[in-house]
Amino acid sequence: MVAFRLAVASAVLLAAGLIGVAPASATGTEGACPAGGGVTVVVDFGDLGPGSLVRCAAGTPANGIAALQEAGIDVAGSQKYGLAVACRINGKPGPDVESCAGMPSATAYWSYWHASAGGSWTSSHEGAQTAKPAPDGFEGWAFARPKSANDLPAPPRVPPVRQAGTAVPDVSKAGEIDFPWGFVIGVAVLLVLGAAGVFISSRRRRRREP
């Protein structure tokens, strides 16, 4: 009876481990939104590397910052102004480039853009925390390194074009692998409990022997 209970417990724990392998659903989707599917967010990391990022924020985000977040892109503001100033996107630039204590440097900052599908990028005249993304439109971010504060930033190098059925990979998270810890732990518990059941059964048989 004890061995049976241990086997049942092992099966339950193993099932829990297998369930833990399933990845959590991520916010947003890779690639441009389909027509009528939401707001497409483009991030051009410039010389920060490794390339550009294109993701879809479904629905109608409340503002430019919300569009980033709902597309599954991390954004951090400055210590002084909060998210009124987008200082880091997916952790870039790092502290070696920008401290994010106050306003970013005039020669190293994130420029903010808008566009309609198939149109041209236009620099935003409003901050991302108050700007309302156009339905079915494109939101763009490009890391600017102008030679002087008087130079105008360049728009994202990815055009605001919707390509049906084509998803752009999230290059900012390349190389990350989710290790199936739940499965490993479940198997380990199964082995330990199975061995314990065999040991208990063996001891009981020895006690019954004359």
TrEMBL record:
<keyword id="KW-0732">Signal</keyword>
<feature type="signal peptide">
    <location>
        <begin position="1"/>
        <end position="26"/>
    </location>
</feature>
<keyword id="KW-0812">Transmembrane</keyword>
<protein>
    <recommendedName>
        <fullName>Secreted protein</fullName>
    </recommendedName>
</protein>
<keyword id="KW-1133">Transmembrane helix</keyword>
<feature type="transmembrane region" description="Helical">
    <location>
        <begin position="179"/>
        <end position="200"/>
    </location>
</feature>
<keyword id="KW-0472">Membrane</keyword>
